[in-house]
TrEMBL record:
Keywords: Membrane, Transmembrane, Transmembrane helix
Gene name of the record: Tmem33
Organism: Hemiprocne comata
Spans traversing the lipid bilayer: 12-33, 80-106, 150-174
GO biological process: endoplasmic reticulum tubular network organization; membrane organization
Full protein name: TMM33 protein
Lipid bilayer topology: Multi-pass membrane protein
Principal location listed in the UniProt entry: membrane
Cell compartment(s), UniProt: Membrane
CC annotations in GO: endoplasmic reticulum; membrane
Amino acid sequence: QFLMANKLDTAMWISRLFTVYCSALFVLPLLGLHEAASFYQRALLANALTSALRLHQRLPHFQLSRAFLAQALLEDSCHYLLYSLIFVNSYPVTMSIFPVLLFSLLHAATYTKKVLDARSSNSLPFLRNLLDKLNANQQNILKFIACNEIFLMPATVFMLFSGQGSLLQPFIYYRFLTLRYSSRRNPYCRTLFTELRIVVEHLIMKPACPVFVRRLCLSSISFISRLAPTVA
């Protein structure tokens, strides 16, 4: 009754579980490397479906207008719909599947707990214990996801020069990264950029650091800072 009363949430729960399943079989290619590539695409397509359903839930009344598009781009679900489309037809990159896997795992765990509560307050204690441990590490997981989002930017550039990526991919991914940086719901991308800047500045200011390395890092920090969008 609970599942039927929340059909859209249930559909997203199933698609997230399928995303976790496909992502796990890509990261751990138990069925062979050739099959792993197909699971990579399936995971991203399932994530695109979940993101589209979530976006429909957040913005149910679609309008073909600039205002609606601007509003949609503020939603995290729109960001990851774009993310899935960026990588679904690209060369499989293990780094790119981790945000999809971990977000799906976190959201699926939250809804699984609701399903268990609807069934019985004491049902499946072992599974509840695992879900509680996952929830306790949520902040660390979100930071890891943000770190993946950041380091995928140079990875897309490397893929371009190695012949495994398209010319447009780094530019489209840069747009995705600016959306994540400006996210209203998830500040971890901004936080990680700040923390990485503090760590790098601390290291390069040590006397043992060569002058040319210090200048190169300071120039890179200045360049990246200029590219960062303004956050209200």
